[in-house]
Design goal:
single chain, Rossmann fold, 5 strands, alpha/beta, globular
Length: 140
Amino acid sequence: MKKIVATGTFDILHPGHIYYLEESKKLGDELWVIVAREKNVVHKPRPIVSEDQRLKMIQSLKCVDHAVLGDQTDMYKPIREIDPAVITIGFNQKWSEEKLRADLAERNICADVVRISEYTGMPFTSSTKIIDEAVRRRTK
């Protein structure tokens, strides 16, 4: 069975997230999703939605076979435990594919890295865009 791992914050679930996960699932037989812990989200504003609620939403998606919270101290721990063939990253995730591949190899994790393209089928395909629009509409 070919396992795929997708990772993300998934704050304010939107069509871009669904696209990312559905495209990730197409790469294998079993999709595992690692949902970022609140304390580990340091590259952008803290999530609005709690990690438990974000996990529950991801677990409810048809394309997701398993969803777990990330480890609070070692982001590679769940990846080692899942042992995926492929790790997907979203089009706007800050990872460099080359750096991630090197980090995985350094830890003896044999997984390919695939960046999923951007979904452009709808206007609100990022949490930031949704938040900005909500603020704009409510402060008129």
